[in-house]
Amino acid sequence: MKWGWGRGRTVVAAVLGVLAMLAGCVDAGAGAERGESAGAGADRGAGEVAGSSAPARPGSAPPPIPSSPDLPGVPHAVGFAADATGFALLAECGEAPCRQHVAVLDKGADSWRLGRSPLPDVTGGFGITAGLVVLGPGRVLITEGWLPPPDRTWFTDDGGRTWRRGSVAPSGTTPEVPEGGALVQDCSRLDEEGNNCEASRLLVILPDTGRFEVLANQPPLAGRLGPAGETADGLLFASGTDPSSGLPALAVSEDRGRTWRTAPLTSSDKQGWGIQVVASGDVLYAVQSGPLPAEEGVKNGLRALHRSTDGGHTWERVRRYRKGVDPRSTLGDPVAAADGSLTIHGEDGVWRSTDGGRSFEAARGSQGLGGSATVTPLGYLAGDSFGVGSYRISADGIRWHSFVLGDGD
Q1: For residue 372, what pLDDT is reported?
Q2: What is the pTM of this model?
Q3: Is 20 inside a domain boundary?
């Protein structure tokens, strides 16, 4: 449903929320209740919400994103540029086919507006497959399709007032990821079932045109290459397989993808699916997801957690999966907050560590699905687990501002 973005990544509601939305079963009353509390924009502690980014200084005020509960439908993707402008995709579903909308937040606006949507109504049985990548103020690429490469794309550079049909294949090569651009996975081989990618390369989405180009110097990894995060000081990470050991590994670039060095993980888990890096100042965390034994009843398993204090040159594994010990799952990105804490959002709760990821405790009020979060150039952006339009945003992972989008229908 989404790709692995290196910047301006899509925020997608948790699976249960999306399924409820597509079935037309989202409870509008529940959305209204959330709207009352979120509209107040109260600050909250890191243990109560989801989020992840390269944090600002402790106590930094959250960006004041306005609520717009009058927008039609339910949002399933939201993204921001560094100047607090943004885009959102909403789906309005009922007995008729789902109608897809694009909402836009202009610079300094006190509410979101509807832009012109290039997306068609959804009439088939595949559900909502659209995603977005914010490429800067007024710029976004909308994609449609389940797997990379996408089936269709559209690009705007004027805040959604006009769109032009984009490409789905690279048009050339580029030596680097320009500021505002995004790394994306391009699948070259599927597994035998045709459901998952087995081999891929990295493409760059250019911020001025929204077009794809092949990154000229690919990371020195094999298998399924994918973007694995970007830090505030410009480090780019990619994940894949170490050609010599066959184990999951990271590569890091300090010059926007022109050159790469391997960043081997200590005792990485061969059963892992992928790796995502988050940062808190000079401290990096690499979160490795993967399958767990069936008796755990977990779909988004957490296999291992690694920590680095030297820019990813060396890593220490601070946690590995143990039967029955939480957190056993991970949804979205962890919070690497400015106060040194690390928060993981899982299928059965929210878990917080204050000792560098070595031990975790259940966050206050944590129960059930813990929501999900992603990195934007504006800070941590967190969505709830049930797709009714409640979001929170934070500059430092400590203080949070809540806002609501959509009417919940």
Answers
A1: 81
A2: 0.85
A3: yes
